[in-house]
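For reproducibility, we list the full input for the zinc ion complex.
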Amino acid sequence: LKLNSLRESVYEANMELFRRGLVLYTFGNASGIDRNEGIFAIKPSGVSYAELSPKNMVLVDLDGSIVEGELRPSSDTKTHLHLYQKWSDIGGVAHTHSTYATVWAQARRSIPCLGTTHADYVNGDIPCSNVISELNTKDDYEFNTGSQIISSLGNRTPTEVPMVLVAGHGPFSWGADASKAAAHSVILEEIARMALMTHSLANGNIFPLENHLLEKHYTRKHGPQAYYGQV
Ligand SMILES: [Zn+2]
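The corresponding predicted structure, in tokenized form, follows.
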């Protein structure tokens, strides 16, 4: 089997979504790419987490053709593919229907930055996409879902915004590899949960985090001025 370490890391990322309670039954999927090979590994479609293993991850190239695998890849494979094609610096993608993030997606609301937990990961709000059109649903739905995700970032980079909500659907996240993409799904769920509770406690009287705090927290973890953590 090809690309064993990639299979292993993508398997682990999928299991992390399961262990954290972000996915039920066969919901959700994570993938990771080897940029040198131009191949990504993704969860097979409709297989339960108990039956997953590194060896049943499906390998797909950047034209969307299966390179290796007995099973069909996740039905969301074309969404992952579109993000890998568009954003050359991401190495992993994850998708769940985790409860709190999906609640915001169903309310069709972006998550405003209300605190430093959010600002540590995202430079500004977590955008909610527009609702996909009927035409784009009938014709190449999964690829077009990728387009909805990409356009929801506006002028921001996928590094500044490593997570979004797809309206009426649920969250997608990404990162340097599959493990970071899955971690961003976990963090998004926590941010969404805290934001909903803040809305409820504050009875809609919401204070967006001040720009000086947003900038401080975002830039101390990201970019040339970062000093959080170990080098
Ligand atoms: Zn979905």
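The pocket of zinc ion is lined by residues 95, 97, 169-170 (CB under 6 Å). The longest helix spans residues 178-201. Both points were considered when choosing residues for closer inspection.
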